[in-house]
Amino acid sequence: MSCKYRIWVAENIYSLITKIILYLLFCAMHISLKIFIFLLEILFLQGHEISKPPHIIFIYADDLGMNDISLRGSPQIPTPNIDALGLNGLVLDNYYGEWLCTPSRGAFLTGKYPIRLGLQHSAFNVGEASGLPLKEVILPQQLKKLGYQTHIVGKWHLGYQTKEFTPTYRGFDSHLGYYTGFIDYYDHTIYEDTGLSIKPYYFGLDLHNGSKILRNQQGKYATHLFTETAEQIIRHHDTSKPLFLYLAHVAAHAGNFFKPEQAPPEVISKFKYIEDLNRRIHAAVISILDDSVGTVFRALHGKNMLRNSIVLFVSDNGAEVDPKSSGHGSNYPLRGNKCTPWEGGIRLPAIVWSPLLNLKKPRIAQQLMHVTDWLPTFYRAAGGDPSDLGSLDGFDMWDSLLYDSASPRTNMLQNLDPIDGTSAFRLGDLKVVNGSTGNGFDSWYGPSGLERFNGPATFEWIFMEGSVVAQVLKKMGMWIAENQRDTYERLRIRCQQPPPEIAYNGCHADKNPCLFNITDDPCEYKNIADEYPEMVAKMMDLINMYKEEMMEPQSKPSDSEGDPMCHNFLVVPWLDPDNYVKCDFAEGSTANGGLSLKVNATNSEGPTHIKIAIHWLYAFLILTIINKNQSVR
Ligand SMILES: *[C@@H]1O[C@H](CO)[C@@H](O)[C@H](O)[C@H]1NC(C)=O
Ligand SMILES: *[C@@H]1O[C@H](CO)[C@@H](O)[C@H](O)[C@H]1NC(C)=O
Ligand SMILES: *[C@@H]1O[C@H](CO)[C@@H](O)[C@H](O)[C@H]1NC(C)=O
Ligand SMILES: *[C@@H]1O[C@H](CO)[C@@H](O)[C@H](O)[C@H]1NC(C)=O
Ligand SMILES: *[C@@H]1O[C@H](CO)[C@@H](O)[C@H](O)[C@H]1NC(C)=O
Ligand SMILES: [Ca+2]
């Protein structure tokens, strides 16, 4: 409506006067309406930061299974802060990630399936010259367009061959953390199997503050270091600007194989009722992760940011359950392991808490959702128009979550690995699984977590030691949890018959695709492919269509010049001119570009094996010094 009216076209004086009167009336109405709206805004909107983009705090757990937190599973590992967030917010019951770290993180930051990024086969190794393609404009860059300050704390795992691949060159204002897949919880080194014949392991310190190596934190427990860093970021944040904080913890991933998961002894001893020592340590690691959620929440409260925040807690992929791979997590009763297309590998704990959701009571969100959906959803929640983001696989879920309406997502590519020959696809209730399903981890793995307990989690037991999140919510009058016992009951995943032994023999995906009705059979017991051959054919056709659009998997062996040993045992962007050194031990670089040097191992002065031995002795000494400051289990 605008105050323009054509009064000049009048046949006579009377009609002119009438028109002038009409014009004045119209303008008066227009102006008073504007004043009325303005008054309304003053009355109702003042004090609410409704027009400001919300702060987005994304807490990412690593390899945390559905049955590793009390909210979704057994009471074995009480997580009172995570639970309080879920019991007062949205628990996403049908949330899916990718099956592994690198693909999940790539999908999160780009809104695209890993097949479009070359991330569909594996996670990046130390010194591997692969990376999230530089042409992608990623989440922090998009949020910066809307005025956000952006920070990442913890794990990156999306490539670091040159500095351009590292977080602070890709839209993050700061990064304190590591570039590779995991680090030791105390000394922050990585010792990783490269699969190379001459040097089967790479070893180095991987902790950075921006582009600087962070040396003075050795002996500091990683979850504590990352939590304190997040706290500092919040404390120093200029609240006139929206904050995007991506807190990507090492917990509950295993560290180096000789000392996989670690936690302070006093925390481990809280879990004496768990008989298996390794599971007990796993519980301690998760308990400290839970504390971290409380600490971050309290920091947001302290800075008066909570009312305009979206706080999320999400896992990147399912738990590692193989003790041979240092795995003591549990996806039970879901089928399979991390690295598999089974539900246990990809259906994950996920919570959204925010006053912007206007929840009057907590909700279990049934909408189908995938890790690629966060980018358009956040962009929209921040006031942006997701259609500006170009072509994505992700959907804007904001309205569905806000109004509990149907998910715009009706299907989902869940795996398409042309090297292992694995694929899975979800269409409505149905899921097809085809090809190899991941190192034989096709069964159901415990612990169920119900050992020594006679029933489901009880609210009283889980909250026995208190919960910072609960305290803050109650203090702010924002505690809306009700019928907690009932909520816990509804959040437990229930399998149907038949028992697993029969189910196990019912599906041979390496021979013929299997089909499951996930809504009816979340534990993938009953292969119904024979009953719906036309559905199987249709879904396999859809997978094959994606195959056409696929980028070649980037996966390649670690670069011999990327060996941290060549850089004083530091994990650095080895192909960067600043760091580039001609490495004595290189068998030949796999990297492209002018910097790549091919040096024959035997060409360097002196016998190679003696040099390698000397370096290992050096590494051993460094580790010994570092370990002096560690707490002993
Ligand atoms: C990391 O770098 C920032 C900025 O240079 C500095 O303020 C901060 O204290 C550093 N953190 C650590 C743990 O050294
Ligand atoms: C399905 O699995 C079979 C057997 O492993 C394989 O030959 C075929 O290529 C797979 N199809 C797709 C689309 O992955
Ligand atoms: C899958 O299960 C749901 C829930 O029981 C049911 O409504 C739906 O009809 C089933 N779909 C098929 C194809 O069997
Ligand atoms: C490496 O060694 C092979 C055979 O020993 C030789 O043919 C080749 O030229 C050498 N490459 C370089 C870069 O010296
Ligand atoms: C070990 O800890 C002591 C005291 O906390 C500190 O002074 C020293 O610098 C640390 N040494 C190393 C190698 O981190
Ligand atoms: Ca992971």
In short:
This is Sulfatase N-terminal domain-containing protein. This protein is of the alpha/beta class and 633 residues long.
How does this model look, in words?
This protein is of the alpha/beta class. Helices cover 29% and strands 13% of the residues. It is built from 16 helices and 18 strands. Strand 16 and strand 17 (430-435) form a beta hairpin. It starts with 12 loop residues before the first helix and ends in a 5-residue tail after the last helix. One 2-acetamido-2-deoxy-beta-D-glucopyranose binds next to loops. GO terms for molecular function: metal ion binding; sulfuric ester hydrolase activity. It comes from Larinioides sclopetarius.
Task: Name a few traits of the molecule.
633 residues, alpha/beta, four-stranded antiparallel sheet, binds 2-acetamido-2-deoxy-beta-D-glucopyranose, binds calcium ion
